[in-house]
Amino acid sequence: MDKIIYQTGTINSLLQGVYLGNKTVQQILHYGNFGLGTYDNVNGEMIVCDGVCYRANGQGQLEVANPKSYTPFGVVTKFLSQHQEEIGNYDFHGLEQHLLSVFPSQNLVYAIRVTGKFKIVNLRSEECFRNIEGQKLADVLPKMQNMFDLQQVEGVLVGVWYPEYMSRVNVAGFHFHFVDNARQSGGHVFGFELEAGTLDIQALHDVQINLIESTAFEQADLAGFHADSVAAVEKIRT
């Protein structure tokens, strides 16, 4: 069980407007204690850390998620560190390059945890209380999201890395969410400046995917590769 990552929904289904899932927080926590995702109608950022599932609201404030809340896109694993080292003085790009040099293969999936002190973390979260099913994520997210920074903060980067050949299933490359040590603030990470911390990595050899049981998922166009849309909603701060 220490080499399995579980996922509900796909990045392409989320991009194409499939915003209602059929798995609850309680159900996905059965599969893992570490991970990330979002909630139905993209109503906040999901961060799973140390077995607790949090929701970051539109202001980046954390609350323990309702176990009956549903997720259209969530990724979790039972985290067990296979590589640990002390690191420091990395920005997002620098850490990416270091991680790629440490990974034994770029054909596997990895869970990544960085616990440390940050000079700054650039974040995003969002809030939505209406049904946006069927509208493209790149169109609706800019209207719902809020960008903010946390400065001189200690906390945890919760991350995953998927290989390029799985880009229709999940975000290819690095994807990080953040929770502070007080478990009061967090969100989706666009950038950071790490002063010092501990890096833990887990290589994952098995991917289990729940294909959402819904008409919206069955009828969505999931065949294409939407690189610009992924960059717009996951990797570019505007």
Description:
- The protein has 238 residues and is α+β, with helices and mostly antiparallel strands.
- Helices cover 18% and strands 45% of the residues.
- It has 6 helices and 14 strands.
- The strands form 3 sheets. The protein has a 7-stranded mixed β-sheet with strand order 6-5-4-3-8-1-14, with no helix packed on it.
- It is globular and about 45 Å long.
- It starts with a strand and ends with a helix.
- The model has no long low-confidence stretch (mean pLDDT 94).
Intertermini distance: 39 Å
Structural class: alpha+beta
Largest sheet: 7 strands, mixed
Mean pLDDT: 94
Beta percentage is over 45%
Looking across the biggest beta sheet, what order are the strands in?
6-5-4-3-8-1-14
The total count of helices amounts to 6
What's the order of the H and E elements? EHEHEEEEEEEHEHEEEEHH
Strand element count: 14
Unreliable runs: none
Helix content: 10-25%
Report the radius of gyration as a whole number of Å.
Answer: 16 Å
Which word captures the global form? globular
